[in-house]
Write a structure and sequence with these properties.
Length: 422
């Protein structure tokens, strides 16, 4: 079981020093020196097309897939935070293949997801609407169908913004909790400004990102999971975790969410503060002494060091989280396009290493197995006993996104993370 890997197990680094040498002295945005072949990337995407069609056969018309557990497909209604990833994956794979069946499957799911544009009870509307309808608009150009949905959703999201706290509320309960995951939903707001011409969405995204830098991050550039605020005066009530090993630990997916978010914020604003910050976060992640050699992180960077007094020490010290690795790979590919020379080379080599390893056993499932999900061995939430060592819909989404991004670079196409065009 992958959860019992030792730190040194897995895949050895593939000629990293040689690859870095080959990639040096290259300007930002360069695409030469890529080490994974076009044939390899296309094969992974073709396999993903075949696998998602297996999954499609098992998903009820009114549901979205979450995971495959105990030989059973686990689904959700559209209110669940992961509801946008399946249609988003279908759309990315349509972009790759031109397969109209995938586009139709995506449109069928968009119809049941559309009502969430009015959902003001969640901060996850970026995941839910932007990964789905944003990709749909980008690929089809159908503003008549999708523009209003996206802008209505953006209004719903900013209804959760408190100008005193200077951040968007994440969950109900607590006092006024803001989680690091929320960085991922800011792209929706930035692009809503592009789509509408109204800067208010991007302004709120920037304010939230700045508040997160100030309050979520420790001196070593690791992030807390949850900061709970007093909504009356903006003061901090508590710094906690919900899905990490303990309050002061570095929950792995949270670190990847933050990295991806600040790279994106640099792209959307041109503010070099975000790029510099992202580099520091990347250094924390990539140089962590508990990072496995295959660069597929443990569920929490502090998990291997848990002592007997931790409720997770007995069974959960070495569980890997492929979903963290997929977000990290996609983020590093983009970060490489914003950097030069040794930095550019290092980020790309690391992303390639992750993609290579995720694309082979034990992480990648054989076609027709794993319930139709592409990757195995992700972790939803160990503290909640939820979705442990199973496939997850968002792991597949960001894996596909990383492959699509890499394919664009191989084909000499301009790299762009944008999903909406005015």
């Amino acid at each position: 079981m992958i959860g019992s890997f030792s730190k040194k197990a897995g895949f050895m680094l593939i000629g990293v020093s040689l690859v870095i040498t080959a990639c040096q002295n290259q300007p930002a945005g360069t695409t030469t020196g890529l080490q994974l072949s076009h044939e390899f990337i296309v094969q992974q995407l073709d396999d993903a097309v075949a696998q998602i069609k297996v999954l499609a056969d098992s998903v009820p018309a009114d549901r979205m897939p979450r995971t495959f557990q105990g030989d059973t497909i686990v689904t959700s209604d559209t209110r669940w935070w992961t509801s946008g990833f399946y249609p988003g994956s279908l759309l990315y794979l349509y972009e790759h293949s031109g397969d109209e069946q995938l586009l139709q499957l995506a449109k069928d799911k968009l119809r049941i997801l559309e009502k969430e544009q009015h959902n003001k009870g969640t901060h996850d509307l970026g995941f839910m609407l932007y990964c789905s309808f944003g990709n749909a608009l980008r690929l089809t150009g159908d503003t008549a169908t999708y523009k209003t949905i996206l802008l209505t959703g953006a209004e719903s999201l900013i209804s959760r913004y408190n100008p005193t706290v200077k951040a968007i509320r994440s969950w109900e309960g607590w006092t006024y909790p803001v989680i690091i995951d929320n960085m991922m939903n800011l792209e929706f707001l930035a692009q809503a400004s592009t789509l509408s011409g109204d800067p208010k969405y991007r302004d709120i995204a920037m304010t939230h990102a700045n508040t997160t830098i100030k309050n979520h991050y420790r001196p070593d550039y690791s992030s807390y999971h949850v900061i709970d605020y007093n909504p009356e005066d903006g003061s901090i009530v508590a710094k906690k975790t919900a899905q990490g090993a303990y309050d002061e630990s570095a929950w792995a997916r949270g670190q990847a969410w933050g990295l991806y978010g600040y790279i994106m914020m640099y792209r959307e604003t041109g503010d070099v503060t975000y790029l510099d910050f992202a580099k520091h976060v990347a250094a924390f992640i990539l140089n962590h002494p508990n990072m496995p050699e295959d660069l597929v992180p443990y569920w929490d960077f502090n998990a291997p060091d848990l002592t007997a007094d931790s409720p997770y020490a007995a069974n959960y010290k070495t569980n890997r989280d492929a979903s963290t690795a997929t977000v990290l790979a996609s983020a590093l590919i983009e970060l490489s396009t914003h950097t030069e020379n040794e930095e550019h080379a290092d980020y790309m080599v690391k992303a390639e290493h992750i993609l290579k390893n995720l694309s082979t056993a034990p992480y990648k499932a054989e076609i027709g197995t794993n319930g139709g999900f592409i990757l195995k061995y992700s972790v939803g939430s160990i503290p909640h006993g939820s979705e442990i060592d199973v496939p997850l819909t968002y792991a597949d989404y960001y894996y596909i996104e990383a492959l699509i991004r890499y394919k664009r670079l191989l084909e000499g196409k301009p790299f762009s993370g944008e999903k909406i065009k005015k």
